[in-house]
Amino acid sequence: MDEATPYCGPSATPPRPADEQPDGPFADCVLCGEPTEYPESVKGATLCPVCEWQEAQRTACSG
User: Fold this and answer.
1) pLDDT tens string 2-58
2) Is residue 15 a part of any domain in this protein?
3) Residues 6 or more apart from 54 whose CB is under 8 A from it?
4) By residue range, what is the domain housing residue 28?
C-alpha cells in the first residue's frame, strides 16, 4: 500500500439519513478534536469516525 494514501478520509463514513441526525451540537473527538457523529450529551469518550476506525485496528491487532 502506498504510504501517502490515507487509510480513512472525511468521506469514508457515509452520512446518516436526515431522520437519524442527532439534534444539537456535536461532541469533539477526545483524540484529535474533530467533530464526531455524537451529540454533546453523549457520556464517555467520543471519537470521530477516523479515530474510531484507527482504534478498532489497534485493538483488533493487539493480543
Assistant:
1) 444 444 444 444 555 555 555 679 999 999 999 999 999 988 999 999 999 999 999
2) no
3) 7, 8
4) 20-61
Cell of 60: 483488533
8 A C-beta contact, residue 15 and residue 26: no
Alpha helices in the chain (DSSP H): 49-61
Question: 27 φ, ψ to 5°?
Answer: -75, 155
Cell output for 62: 493487539
Cα–Cα distance measured from residue 1 to residue 17, given in angstroms and rounded to the nearest whole number: 32
Residue where the block lists cell 478520509: 9
Helix (H) or strand (E) holding 38: strand 35-39
* 39 vs 47: CA distance, rounded Å: 11
Q: Give the count of domains, the chain.
A: 1
